[in-house]
Specification:
rod-shaped, 192 residues, mainly alpha
């Protein structure tokens, strides 16, 4: 086969999808048509490289999106931990009851640990977020179902609804497979 025919043959191969090229590679006799065989395999390798580069770009886009969402969630945890530590220090200066002080201290420690786990992208932070989110969703639901007696409690119920939305979103977001893989978690759902 001369160069002109080979270039036309190669051009016609470029229009074929990958599965047809692979089928042709199986059917063509390598010894009888070495030029065509070589052209087919060059096209197969080009198409596979293109397919891999497209997949790499899609993975990079997903990782960038996951990184942006994790950064936003991390900022919310930073605000929560600052507020909870301020409440703890306020409780030290102006004594609160023991239950409120312990609850504020527990949340301050927990949110600090979650914040640093998200910041360092550790796999152990995902089960911690699940447990924290589930507990807070249920506790806020019980607050919502109590009747409101004044405007202060209505505002508290609205804030409780917002916290339920935030923590429920975290349960949905961190249960996705690509997010768990981003954090290096290999467990089925919660634990390894």
């Amino acid at each position: 086969m001369d160069k002109g025919e080979l270039s036309k043959y190669t051009e016609s191969l470029r229009r074929l999808p990958l599965f047809q090229l692979e089928w042709l590679a199986k059917k063509i006799n390598k010894k009888e048509f070495p030029d065509r065989y070589q052209a087919i395999f060059e096209q197969i390798s080009e198409k596979k490289q293109l397919q891999l580069s497209i997949e790499d770009k899609n993975i990079a886009k997903k990782h960038a999106r996951i990184f942006q969402i994790v950064a936003r969630i991390r900022r919310v945890y930073l605000v929560l931990l600052i507020i909870s530590w301020l409440v703890v220090f306020w409780g030290i200066c102006h004594p609160l009851n023991l239950r409120e002080s312990l609850e504020a201290l527990l949340y301050a420690i927990l949110w600090t640990v979650i914040y640093y786990g998200l910041r360092s992208e550790e796999s152990w932070v995902i089960p911690l977020i699940f447990i924290n989110s589930a507990i807070l969703c249920f506790s806020r639901l019980t607050d919502i179902f109590h009747p409101a007696e004044n405007a202060k409690e209505i505002v508290f119920k609205v804030l409780s609804c917002l916290t339920i939305l935030f923590f429920f979103y975290q349960i949905l977001f961190f249960s996705k497979g690509e997010v768990r893989r981003y954090f290096g978690d290999k467990g089925k759902l919660l634990f390894h």
